[in-house]
From TrEMBL:
Keywords: ATP-binding, Isoprene biosynthesis, Kinase, Nucleotide-binding, Transferase. Pathway: Isoprenoid biosynthesis; isopentenyl diphosphate biosynthesis via DXP pathway; isopentenyl diphosphate from 1-deoxy-D-xylulose 5-phosphate: step 3/6. Gene3D superfamilies: 3.30.230.10, GHMP kinase, C-terminal domain. Residues 66-144 form the GHMP kinase N-terminal domain. GO terms for molecular function: 4-(cytidine 5'-diphospho)-2-C-methyl-D-erythritol kinase activity. Residues 198-274 form the GHMP kinase C-terminal domain. It comes from Paenibacillus tritici. Catalyzes the phosphorylation of the position 2 hydroxy group of 4-diphosphocytidyl-2C-methyl-D-erythritol. This is 4-diphosphocytidyl-2-C-methyl-D-erythritol kinase. It catalyses: 4-CDP-2-C-methyl-D-erythritol + ATP = 4-CDP-2-C-methyl-D-erythritol 2-phosphate + ADP + H(+). It is an enzyme of class 2 (transferase).
Length: 284
């Protein structure tokens, strides 16, 4: 038997850090939403009791370091599943980009194996399993648009933002999420973006207010480490994006655009100096 799952990328419309916790994680307030750029997973049942990961992408780990492998092992161990699975990952989300590609693959693996092995695990339990794999995984289990608190695992679903184009550009640099959080000084943040304001803008369907409310306190850290991210933001704004922000810990920058007529100009302008550029729709 085979199951197919789509694993969409996420962007953070706002991300605030409240304080560092005793367990080393940071208490955050984020509004996350999915975009129409997704990895595809094919999950094939195997009689042999093992987990095999394959992918057309030559640049991700295929062993126990892969988050889809970890998700499969977690569900197998926890529910005493004796059969195995071959998971093929058709990677389309750029890797180590701040778009939760690995987390979304892990979440899609949890959903897919729940169906493949007919385990009947309720969504909330899948999210709890996901939290053991990473802070972004619980959100990726359900997707949509949500306010995330705690270390990112406490979720409240909210309305979808107004439909728009999302231009994503990933500069060719590597950013470590742990390093970025490690450099945040929570009591020294000049301007905290407001989750409430963003939520109100979304609920009112007010695209201009959504753009005005974009904010991510991790930007200051990543921008200091990699000034080219700032240049990318400026280029996107100059080319006509309505609102621009870095996603997660970066380095991907996204631009929100309401008018389709502007998309080609922004896309082509960015392609001039950035190889990885995508123009996709927001997901409702
Ligand atoms: C930046 C975001 O992607 C925004 O959605 C998330 O906050 C990070 O999610 P993630 O990549 O799933 O993060 P995890 O794999 O759980 O953690 C990676 C590292 O980031 C740091 N980390 C992560 C989440 C959080 N709330 N506080 C942290 O300090 C920790 O040092 C942790 O060791
Ligand atoms: N299924 C996977 N797809 C992509 N990367 C994976 C996967 N499993 C493990 N990894 C590893 O995880 C690291 C982070 O990749 P990923 O694409 O998940 O980052 P990200 O988009 O920055 O995530 P986040 O936004 O949650 O911080 C990479 O170094 C990669 O080698």
């Amino acid at each position: 038997m085979k199951m197919y799952e789509k694993a969409p990328a996420k962007i953070n419309l706002m991300l605030d850090v409240l304080h560092k916790r005793a367990d080393g994680f940071h208490e955050v307030e984020m509004i996350m939403t999915m975009v129409d750029l997704a990895d595809r997973l094919e999950l094939s049942e195997m009689k042999r009791d093992s987990i095999i990961i394959s992918s057309q992408a030559g640049y991700i780990p295929l062993d126990e370091k892969n988050l889809a492998f970890q998700a499969a092992r977690l569900i197998k161990d926890r529910y005493n599943v004796r059969s195995g699975v071959h998971i093929h990952l058709d990677k389309r989300i750029p890797v180590a980009a701040g778009l939760a590609g690995g987390s979304s693959d892990a979440a899609a693996t949890l959903r897919g194996l729940n169906r493949l092995w007919r385990l009947g695990i309720p969504v909330q339990e899948l999210q709890e399993l996901g939290a053991e794999l990473g802070s972004d995984v619980p959100f990726c289990v359900t997707g949509g648009t949500a306010l995330a608190t705690g270390r990112g695992e406490r979720l409240t679903s909210i309305a979808s933002p107004p439909q728009c184009w999302v231009i994503l550009a990933k500069p060719p640099i590597n950013v470590s999420t742990a390093e970025v959080y490690g450099r945040v000084r929570a009591n020294n943040i000049a301007v905290h973006p407001s989750a409430l304001r963003m939520q109100q803008a979304i609920e009112a369907g007010d695209f201009a207010a959504v753009c005005a409310g974009l904010g991510n306190v991790l930007e200051d850290v990543t921008l200091k480490l990699h000034p080219e991210v700032q240049q990318l933001k400026e280029a996107m704004l100059k080319l006509g994006a309505d609102g621009v922000l870095m996603s997660g810990s970066g380095p991907t920058v996204f631009g929100l655009v309401s008018k389709q007529s502007k998309v080609a100009r922004i896309y082509n302008g960015l392609r001039g100096f950035c190889k990885e550029v995508y123009a996709v729709r927001s997901l409702s």
